[in-house]
Amino acid sequence: MPPRRAPKFVTIPPWDDGKNLAPVFFEGDDMMIMMSRLMGGNDYIFKNTEREKQGLPRIEKPEHQFVQVLMERKRAELAARDVAISAMQKCDVVLQVTLGLDGTEHSSLAAAKLPPIMRRLRVSAGMKLTVFQDKVLAPSIGWDRNFHAWIFTDFRDGAQFGTKQTAGASIDFMHSDRVGFKWLEAKEYTIAHLFDKEGDMFGYLYDFGDRFKHKIEIVSIFSEEDSTGDVTLLEGAGACPGENMDGNMRYGKKLAAYRKASATDRLAFKNEILSCPNHESYQGRASNFDPFVFDLLAGQRRLGVALASKQSDPTGAKVHVMSFAPENSYDMHTKVGKNQVHEKTHTGPSQFWSEVKNTGLDAAGTRVCSVCGKSREKDLKKCSGCQLADWVTHKVACKQAKAKKEGAR
Questions:
Q1: CA distance 378 to 172
Q2: CB 161 within 8 A of CB 152
Q3: From CA 351, how far away is CA 233, in angstroms rounded?
Q4: Which one of 23, 79, 206, 358 is most buried, by most CB atoms within 10 A?
Q5: Residues 6 or more apart from 264 whose CB is under 8 A from it?
């Protein structure tokens, strides 16, 4: 065994020999990309259980400690850029979302030259990342809301933004150590925190298990004077893959095979996609569905429904429950808070979808106009064209603005 070196940034307990940790964890090495250790996590679970029984503090895995250092640095950097970010939050941006299927790491798939799945959106850069993912991005692409775990990645430095893992969170959080260990709270940040200028890109990973990877490019930035705050799905290409269809490369391989398949096999593939929960609203015949075609009107309808709904609760994520006996079916959603309901949608004997949904007003800072998608308080106050259609949201914004103005006197 090589001699134990002094750790840098982290505490490595006696039971961890540091094997397979990247050199960046030790003194005398420069910063480099950190590699995940897939083994040894259980040692920390068992050892920390023993330490808690003895009244001793927990010791986090070195990977988690290291990312905590990176997170603190990122917070400080963003705080130092607050003036520039605040100015950018007042601007609309056009985003191009691309789910690539070219399979550059797989030569046979690259040869298929599959067109990427693409969506182009106009949205305010001041929109909170949690609202953007839940009410705009997921429905525009075609993913199911509040189903799988997700993160945004700032390509400038690799910083990640997501939601916390809780008892009722998405089940694929079990794969979080293969994604990034820890990340900044997305609810505290906006789209403007992820870019500086036109042409910048950031990442969106959907589903920690299947790992559908998207790139989001800042196509154009509007001036504050030309910005309206409206959310608009402008155009798109390619139907959204079905949930749980194995990520970009495997789905791309299926699409490549579909091109050459018989009519019978093509229909089977269409039915496989349409059987997934994110395609359950499809009303046409399976034979008329085309995985290479994007239905813009249907996408705009999904976006409209999402904007008009309550913010999803990631601590009560959607999960499919099934059991051989009704009395033995386990539902992880046992806690329902104030202004929430536990919704069950039965799909068969001893099978149902379970989700905790909000019924009250969305939290301050996350409210959007249910008609046009405006998210900033200033935009909501002047959104007179939608006030009658969405008076509840506008009334709250107006009252808050009035109280703030009176308090300043």
A1: 37
A2: yes
A3: 35
A4: 206
A5: none
- The string of DSSP letters for 92-126 reads EEEEEEEE----TTSHHHHTT-PPPEEEEEEEETT
- Amino acid identity at 114: L
Residue where the block lists tokens 């039915």: 271
Query: What pTM value is reported for the model?
Result: 0.83
pLDDT tens column, 204-228:
999 999 999 999 999 999 999 999 9
Within 256-312, strands assigned E span none
CA distances from 393 to 123, 134, 390 (A): 18, 18, 6
Backbone angles phi, psi at 272, to 5 degrees: -60, -45
Name the amino acid, one letter, at 35: M
Residues 6+ apart with CB under 8 A from 22: 32, 33, 34, 35
Rounded CA separation 202/186 (Å):
14
Q: List Cβ<8 Å contacts ≥24 apart for 260-269.
A: none
pLDDT in tens, 53-106: 899 988 888 888 888 889 999 999 999 999 999 999 999 999 999 999 865 445
pLDDT digit string (tens) for 324-381? 655 555 566 667 888 899 898 888 877 888 999 999 888 888 888 877 778 766 666 6
Sheet holding 92-99, edge to edge: 184-185, 160-162, 150-154, 201-206, 212-221, 92-99, 117-124, 232-237
CA 137-142-145 angle, 5° bins: 65
- In angstroms, the CA 314 to CA 316 distance is 5
Q: What Å distances lie between residue 270 and 18, 243, 256, 282, CA to CA? A: 48, 13, 13, 12
